[in-house]
Write a structure and sequence with these properties.
11 helices, mainly alpha, 3 strands
Length: about 250
């Protein structure tokens, strides 16, 4: 969704008051017309330049006579008559994509500080949006299991190495969770373990063998492969209990 950056003092800035006086309108009307102009500009320019238009063209678009003249008088607009080009000084400070990115980072940082003051967070804030994005990419393999077995299985299924026999795998997943519960493991912990181990297995060479068919998810679950030492998955040798092509 398109948007523009506007500071809270803008409606009462001297420039807005001067525009109102020049045009003989109220400051609120002047601010509203300025907002319409900036929104229009955001849709037609990426660098603050609009080629092929004169001030009266913009006045016609905004239905505001002499508005562009008022903008030029306060220094918010320039007109290059020789090249027939409208120019907005310092466009990158407010309308440019970098300005919008800075505004979003500032907003996120302010929200984090407020949460910190309220005692809802105890971690160190990140001031870099790109750093946070890199962190999300690093954490992509960390299992986050939704509430409920069906949702947990759906998360499990997204990480499997070969999406074959989904319903059989669903049944095997439920049995594996119950099996671990009988061993004293909490249901949520069991689901996390299955998702964690499957994600690790799916990245290993054994999940993508070159000399045989890959082990099906249901088989993997029914054989209790989630209890294997993950280090053993780094090899690609065929194991004795891999002979079953599919278990229901």
């Amino acid at each position: 969704m398109a948007w523009i950056k506007v500071e809270s003092p803008t409606p009462s800035k001297p420039e807005v008051l001067r525009i109102a006086r020049i045009m003989g309108i109220t400051p609120d009307d002047a601010f509203g017309k300025a907002m319409r102009f900036w929104l229009w500009l955001d849709g037609v320019s990426v660098d603050g330049r609009v080629d092929g238009l004169a001030p009266h063209d913009v006045d016609a678009v905004l239905n505001a006579r002499d508005f562009c003249n008022a903008l030029m008088q306060v220094g918010w607009l320039e007109y290059d008559a020789q090249n027939e080009c409208l120019i907005v000084p310092h466009f990158d400070r407010h309308n440019g994509e970098s300005a919008k990115a800075r505004a979003l980072r500032a907003r996120r940082q302010a929200k984090w500080r407020q949460k910190s003051v309220d005692g809802r967070v105890d971690s160190v804030a990140s001031t870099s949006a790109s750093t946070r994005e890199e962190k999300r990419r690093e954490d992509i393999n960390t299992p986050i299991v939704p509430q409920g077995t069906d949702a947990a299985f759906d998360a499990f299924w997204r990480s499997v190495h070969i999406k074959t026999g989904k319903e059989a795998a669903r049944r095997a997943f439920t049995r594996a969770v119950k099996r671990m519960q009988h061993e004293g493991i909490q249901k949520g912990d069991a689901e996390v373990r299955l998702l964690d181990r499957m994600a690790a297995f799916a990245r290993s060479p054994q999940a993508h063998p070159k000399d045989r068919s890959p082990i099906h998810p249901a088989t993997w679950l029914n054989q209790g492969r989630y209890d294997d030492d993950p280090a053993a998955w780094e090899g690609n040798g065929r194991e004795a209990n891999d002979t079953t092509p599919f278990d229901n």
